[in-house]
TrEMBL record:
SUPFAM superfamilies in UniProt: FMN-binding split barrel (SSF50475)
Highest rank taxon of the organism: Eukaryota
Region (Disordered), start-end ranges: 248-273
Gene3D superfamilies associated with the record: Electron Transport, Fmn-binding Protein, Chain A (2.30.110.10)
InterPro entries xrefs: Pyridox_Oxase-rel, Split_barrel_FMN-bd
PANTHER family attached to this UniProt entry: 5-NITROIMIDAZOLE ANTIBIOTICS RESISTANCE PROTEIN, NIMA-FAMILY-RELATED PROTEIN-RELATED, FLAVIN-NUCLEOTIDE-BINDING PROTEIN
Pfam families, per the entry: Pyridox_ox_2
Name of this chain's protein: 5-nitroimidazole antibiotic resistance protein
Length: 273
């Protein structure tokens, strides 16, 4: 853990403008949101298309040179994908040019904690935690780093899964998989928590208040009971998998209910969106 809380520098493209009291620039906060998201939205510009491309991808923050680095440390983002995908091919082309830092990417993640129901549709909102990162991606070419990143990403999906499967990947698997290392230049988070906030005029309307229920419906991603595959021969669900499922469900449930109470985070005051 660093001796002081590190923050990403505020750049024109990364600074939160609207409802900026909800903004966070802490590395620990941003990295935590990124690493808790089951997938990331990765945006890039392909010169062959007039439109920006956005792909859902699996990724994880980490440091190959400092594997034990904390979430509050400076970290890289590792993205996993198929070798011939458009983004991977574009990144290989960019990395071959000495004038390029890599392929510019914008990465976002959002975690939903609740539906915030107010007196009027215009004041409805969500309790949420969102993060955005800006960086340059290059393909990982070192075999040791690539193997480390594949383990990192696999275990970010289900902890200890890598160690409880057939590993290491064979040559065909290594050749068909690409890993991108994204050096982060800037980032920010935006967090909303607490109860509904309505305009003073609606709050003074007793008729509206008496007929309209207001409050928060907590929300979280829930893992169901594992269903064995048709060719499964393991006798029971392994303990590491069941612990991850049960503990993860409880942690996300707790976070959703805690978000209802934390009205001080990003509170706008009157009205809300």
């Amino acid at each position: 853990m660093p001796s002081r809380e590190l923050e990403y520098p505020k750049q024109p493209y990364s600074t939160v403008k609207r409802l900026n009291d909800r903004a966070r620039y802490s590395l620990e906060t941003i990295h935590g949101i990124i690493n808790s998201s089951p997938f990331l939205n990765v945006a890039f510009q392909d010169s062959t298309s007039p439109f920006p491309a956005v792909l859902p991808m699996i990724g994880q923050m980490g440091s190959f040179s400092r594997p034990s680095a904390d979430l509050g440390d400076v970290l890289d983002l590792y993205l996993h994908g198929y070798v011939s995908s458009r983004l991977m091919s574009l990144s290989r082309s960019s990395s071959s040019s000495s004038s390029e830092e890599g392929t510019p990417l914008t990465i976002t993640a959002t975690l939903l904690d609740g539906y915030v129901l107010s007196l009027t549709p215009n004041s409805h909102s969500y309790n949420y935690r969102s993060a955005i990162l800006f960086g340059f991606a290059v393909p990982v070419t070192d075999p040791a780093e690539k193997l480390w990143a594949m383990e990192l990403v696999t275990n970010s999906v289900v902890p200890s899964r890598y160690q409880n499967t057939r590993t290491p990947p064979n040559n065909a698997e290594m050749q068909s998989t690409s890993i991108l290392r994204v050096k982060i230049k800037a980032g920010s988070a935006k967090i909303r928590s607490g109860e509904p906030h309505d305009e003073r005029g609606d709050m003074n309307n007793q008729e509206i208040r008496e007929k309209t229920w207001v409050g928060v419906v907590p929300a979280w991603m829930q893992f169901g009971e594992p269903v064995a595959g048709g060719y499964n021969q393991a006798e029971e669900v392994p303990g590491y998998l069941e612990s991850w499922r049960v503990e993860g469900n409880e942690e996300r449930r707790r976070e959703a209910y805690e978000a209802v109470k934390e009205g001080g985070k990003g509170k706008k005051g009157e009205g809300d969106k």
